[in-house]
Write a structure and sequence with these properties.
This protein is mainly α. It has one domain. The protein is 69% helix and 0% strand. The chain is built from three helices and no strands. The longest helix has 21 residues. The chain starts with 21 loop residues before the first helix and ends with a helix.
Length: 77
C-alpha cells in the first residue's frame, strides 16, 4: 500500500480519510473533537510510533547493523 497507511492504523493512531472526500473529513474532525479521550489516546499512540520507528538513533543503529552484516558477508567470501 505505502505511505501513511503503512504507519497509521485507522482508528488506532489516527483517522485515515480517502482523498477527495471533504464530507468524510469534516465528519471525522467533528467526531474527533467530540471525543477528547480518543483524541489524546490516538495522539499518544502516534507519538510512540514516531519515536520508535523514526528516531534518529534507532534508525542509525539499524543501518549500522545492516552495514556490519554486509561487511561480514563480504569479508568471508
Amino acid at each position: 500500500m505505502g505511505g501513511v497507511p503503512d504507519i497509521i492504523r485507522d482508528g488506532e493512531e489516527g483517522i485515515l480519510i480517502p482523498p477527495g472526500n471533504p464530507e468524510t473529513m469534516a465528519q471525522a474532525i467533528i467526531d474527533f473533537l467530540d471525543d477528547p479521550v480518543k483524541h489524546k489516546s490516538m495522539a499518544l499512540k502516534g507519538k510512540i510510533i514516531v519515536e520508535n520507528r523514526f528516531d534518529f538513533k534507532v534508525r542509525t543503529l539499524k543501518l549500522e547493523k545492516i552495514y556490519t552484516e554486509i561487511m561480514e558477508k563480504v569479508s568471508t567470501s
